[in-house]
Amino acid sequence: MFVSPEVDQVIEQELVELLDSATQTVDIAMYYFTDDDLGEAVIRAHRRGVKVRILLDESQVGASGGEYQKLIAEGIPVAIENTSGLMHHKFVIIDGKITVTGSYNWTASADDRNFENIVIIFCPEIAQAYAQEFEKLWERFKVEETQKTTTGVSVKVIINAVLPNPSGLEPDEEWIALYNPSDVSVDISGWWLSDGEGTYVFPQGTILPPKGTLRVYGRQYNPTGYSRGLYLSNKGDEVYLYDASGNLIDQCFWGKARTDVVIKCKS
Questions:
Q1: Residue of 46, 89, 90, 142 marked active site
Q2: Which residues, 6 or more positions from 160, have their beta carbon under 8 angstroms from its beta carbon?
């Protein structure tokens, strides 16, 4: 499959359809990732329960228009290559049986202005070969990233904001945003949120990057809509953040919440 300055959007549309068809896993190794439509497709997959992992070159952490911060904010695991060479791969493995590879970076310019190609391979054996390369890199860069993190003992993670009263479905579209104001990543695996009744425990591998924000939605912390679970009341409520040892890290209180008004928390 090819694109050129005269023929665009063909590859992007095909990739979006493939991501939207994923039911189990999506592993992405990508040099550049700044395409909003593909970023949204990845987030949709994550939100419907697909296990998503992403390897990116270190240039993407602060890239203009990059998807990195959006992906991290959704709680999607992202490992960053930080060696002297480039993480120049451009491949995706979907559900362990579909492999997409080629010259195509996930950028608007790749689809609109460049001569690019991808190959879509429906073969579990080939997908397994690419998966072995992905796992090798994932373990290497995931370990290096973990070595640079802190357990949060001396770093103040804060509850930055909440949206208790969204115009959409409640509690699915509610959210709680955490912010890491420090210059180091913070591993918040095993940390938990509570409103005094329900709780949500952050899964293993949850990393807050430096100056990064993590937004947790109601569909994550209360997927069944249980009335005694973690639930942000529109009439006034509170939420607490604890570390894995049960130490209170931060808290946020609010009164009556208007529709679609984000409440900034004071820490």
A1: 90
A2: 177, 178, 179, 213, 264, 265, 267
Residue 109 is predicted with a pLDDT of 86
Q: What is the pLDDT of residues 198-254, one digit of tens each?
A: 899 998 878 888 888 999 999 989 888 887 789 899 999 999 999 887 888 999 999
The question of whether 57 is a catalytic residue gets the answer no
If you classify domain 158-264 with CATH, what class do you get? Answer: mainly beta
Annotation says 88 is catalytic: yes
Tokens describing residue 120: 């879509």
| Catalytic residue flag (residue 148) | no
Under 8 Å CB-to-CB from 192, ≥6 apart: which residues? 199, 200, 201, 202, 241, 242, 244
Query: Looking at 8, 37, 70, 95, which residue is catalytic?
Result: 95
Q: Per-domain residue ranges for the chain? A: 2-147, 158-264
User: Could you tell me the pTM of the whole model?
Assistant: 0.59
- Return the CATH architecture of domain 2-147: 2-Layer Sandwich (3.30)
20, 51, 88, 264: which one is catalytic?
A: 88
